[in-house]
Hints:
Elements: H1 2-14, H2 23-40, H3 45-66, H4 76-82, H5 85-101, H6 109-123, E1 126-128, E2 140-142, H7 156-159, H8 166-179, E3 187-191, H9 198-210, E4 224-230, H10 231-234, H11 250-255, H12 260-265, E5 269-275, H13 282-298, E6 303-308, H14 315-320, E7 324-328, H15 333-349, H16 359-372, H17 376-381, H18 385-396, H19 406-425, H20 437-454, E8 459-460, H21 472-482, H22 490-500, E9 504-508, E10 511-514, H23 517-530, H24 534-542, H25 548-553, H26 558-572, H27 577-593, H28 599-609, H29 618-624, H30 643-656, H31 659-670, H32 677-682, H33 689-695, E11 704-708, H34 714-717, E12 723-729, E13 749-753, E14 772-778, E15 794-801, H35 807-811, E16 819-826, H36 834-837, E17 845-849, E18 868-875, H37 877-884, E19 891-896, E20 914-918, H38 922-927, E21 936-940, E22 958-962, H39 970-974, E23 987-991, E24 1009-1013, E25 1032-1036, H40 1045-1050, E26 1055-1059, H41 1064-1068, E27 1073-1075
Parallel strand pairs: 3-6, 3-7, 4-5, 5-6, 11-12, 12-13, 13-14, 14-15, 15-16, 16-17, 17-18, 18-19, 19-20, 20-21, 21-22, 22-23, 23-24, 24-25, 25-26
Antiparallel strand pairs: 1-2, 7-27, 8-10, 9-10
Helix pairs in contact: 2-3, 3-5, 5-6, 6-9, 15-16, 15-18, 16-18, 18-19, 20-21, 20-23, 21-22, 26-27, 26-28, 27-28, 29-30, 30-31
Amino acid sequence: MSSVLEGSMYTLVTDRDIEEKPPSDIHRDFLKKIEPEWEADDIGELARGYGRSALTLCCHALSAWVRIFPSERAPAAWTSLVNSTRLIDSCRSMLLAVRKAGVPGSIGAMRVVGTQRRDISSCLSHMELFGLPVEKRFRRVPIAVSYLAGKLSSQANLEHGRSIAINKLIISLANEQTRSKSNKGIRLIITGKAGCGKTTAVQWLAFTASQQGLQGLALPNRPLLPLFVRLRETIMSNRAPSDRMLLYSAQLQDEVASGWLQDCHASVTPLILLDGWDEISPSKRSGAEEWVGSLTERFPDAHIIATSRPEGINNTRFDLLQFKQVSILPLRRNDSAELAERWFNGLLDQHYASAELKHTEVERARRDLLSDLGTPAISDMADSPLLVSMLCCLYATGKTTAPDKRGKLYDLVVSTLLDTRERDRGSNSSDWNNLDLGKKETLVGAIAMEMTKLGAMTLPITGRKYSRVSSLTQIISDVLVKIGRSSAETPRWVETVLSRSIVLQRVANNEAEFAHRSIQDYLAAKSLRQSGQLGVIYDLADAGQWATLPFACYSADLETADKTINWILDRLSACLDSERRILLTTLVECLGASTVVSPKIRRQAEAAISEILPPADETESKALASLGNAAIPYLASSRVIDEQSRRLSINVLARIGTVEAMNELTNYARDARDSDLKALTTALERFDPEAYSKRVLAEINADFGITLTETNRISAISDIERLTRLTVQNARLDDGALNSARHIPRLRQLDIRDSENIGSIEWTASVRSLRSLSISRSSGLSPLKSVGPPELWALHLADVEIEITDWKEILQDKQDLRILSLKQITGQIAVLGAQDLRTLKNLTTLAVAGDLRIDSLDFVGSLTMLSRLVLERRISNQDLKMLSECANIRNLDISFEEHLKPISLTARFNRLQSLTVHSAPAVLLDAVPAMPNLTSLSIEDSNLGSDEFFSVGPEVKKLTLVRCTLENNYETLSHSSNTDRFPAVRELIWRDGHVADLRFLRDMPTLRSLEIEDNGSIQSLDGLEYLKAGCKVRIAGTRWGLDDEPVQKLRRRCEVVYEPEYDSESFTKNFWVDYGGS
Length: 1078
């Protein structure tokens, strides 16, 4: 076995395709070499089993290492790479992933299950960032942190229309099935346009399931078995769809029997993920539908999730199979910005792999793009992960001016990847660089055209025997003759196109595909249009490939645009009702992409499009804006009734941006509802601020607020009478424009967030209407001597650096101040004196945290109105006595000195309703039951008992325990007393503490909500049996491998979310969809 492993280095040096192989395939290759030697040496079966298991781990290591190796895998590279931190981290991650996926060594059907889980864990753990300008192997980033997408709003019966992430959606659906006592699994279709993140969503689900995540989907004692299928790769052959194609490894597919899934079914819960339903050719779709129907009949408890473009699904067929539909929403501005940040972080993380990348240039490109994403025109276009990645690619290669149309963006990206970046490198001696851009586009366009005609997403590089499908080699050979090259050069040009074009890449030993489906659509449509094959484009659209039509219209001449739009209009008269909205949306996109359209055809198209006005979702809202003024009559305020339609209609009018659109927005302002106000104020950034303020905002007959990122617009809104709230965020304020806010006549609330160079804010002292001033996470404040008028009610300073030499000057005239919050203030700050606080007779809330110190607490007795106090300083016995003199305190958040003397607290704080304590001493925990009005208790960083467990009073309904410790087993701590320790607690939150088991739940008979975020300390889930039926339960972060039988039993009577080793960062950055479709 040692000799086989030594030979692995030779494999890495010589095998060019090892990075494409699942670890199980590498494992089989090695076994073929080693098993004959075992036979010859008469090695026992037990030793062989150990050898196979060790070899499996080694193969996973090889698969992980090969992804970070240079393209020339010389033996000398080993020395440097083995000693690198990157290699160590890769090995650590690989071992953890294999451990979660399942330790090798199973036999029979479970061997297949274990192999599949480990293959998914290894091969789907990363995704490729589109356009990353480094060698292909270095474009891969972890799937868990790769990017985020939009929000999901669900049907009322799930989350009452609130946002929900995809993992929470499917667990909610599973809980819904459990509550209804249904034996059926989830049936779900995720739809969305090209590049919206469908594939990454299901890839993330597959990988997470392989790592023991998504526990809410697993049936009792039947762990999840993820089965991930890229349909474009599996249903393109002449073989009928079968259960074997659900396995990731081609070799494993050949080894197993046809009934392998039936054999495994009793031991696992299948999670079947079918990616790219729309990519199945029409001739094969009927067979695929029958196969899916067969899966639902044979495995009713399996979960089946498919992805598709909207036009690629047969709603009738899937409705019969009881599939629910969700659609991924466009990215919002903040989402696009975060995706761009992640893309550039990925680029900087890989910059060592490309010598031409300059760190300073990459950082400049990142700043430029993030700045441009703040403008309406660019943020509107960057509404999908693919389009944001395209912009990142452009900016990273020096093009820092974004186009104004999507077609132009595709033009620029394709030309950059095909031509510009290569020429910028200065290596002009290659065959590729000696071709001009037009001929390069002819080459790849011919390939895209042939693949699109075939309905194929991949193409064989060399011809297959008896196959009628053209190969990449044949297509390139034909095109070389047309562009004046010799067909004898074909083999060299095949390798050149695959290695240098970037948009087309090798995905297997004899398979090639485009970097993204929409790139193929763009190139195919352009080639078909230029070659006069419009009929083929229409035939493709008839077959469901609608995305080619807008690309065909981009930069088309008048005749082509008219003919294409007219064809859609004719198609509308004969289409099914289920297709109608898709066709109308495509018609809108074609109008927007066309440079010229004859007036008659445009009028006919606009009349047809009126059918989908007002828009139903954000996607339609963005598309309909391309109609311009023609859409305005259908968006009139008097015609649009429901809240969502009004908000979307306002967004369309804002994107149209004409004087006529502004006139209609005036009508919306005059009869504005509360739900209209945010959309109306956001539209300010799309118009001239002076005109919009006078003609629209001034007409709003209700108090409202505005959020700005550009302070030069403040002067334009300074005369608006009903403007009462101003928020400035992510702004640079060194232009002095913030001072213009002093002229807003009724400004009551000013909030400055995440901004730079604020300068002086002493001008706020003259704004007599101001009642609340908040500055957070900002920099560049001038030394503070006075702030806000005497009438100020609330002052918030948080996470700011500032110089304050005398608090008396700031607070001496603030007799009306109700709320004073000073948290994490740094810089030269004077001590906050008790004498300065005594003057604040109306103060109800005081919060002080961070470096700021208070010299004494003897002021609290003078503040008779004080009801909420948050202090980060450690409280002494003397401080505690002073606090008890403030009879009105209802909410207290304090820390204690380590050795607090026992004092009687029974008579103190008898009005306290909410208590948060840090480093709580035993004397305080003993006093909790005697606080008669306490309803909410939070204990942080404390020992909950070493001799006897604490208890709470009969009024405590909510208990929160954060980073707390039980030194002994709960049974030991509680044996000495029969007291009802938690008689009325209805909600328990436990985070990052240390507890052996959950048996304390026995003493919580009224509990209705349990949330535990463990850090791996829980050793047993015993105790869950004490929970009553109907309790909502979420348990996360438990160490991997715990016996989850208590969870499975609990699911029979409670709604449970169980996520062992839960990573909050990777789960909150998730894929969001619109439940119910659009």
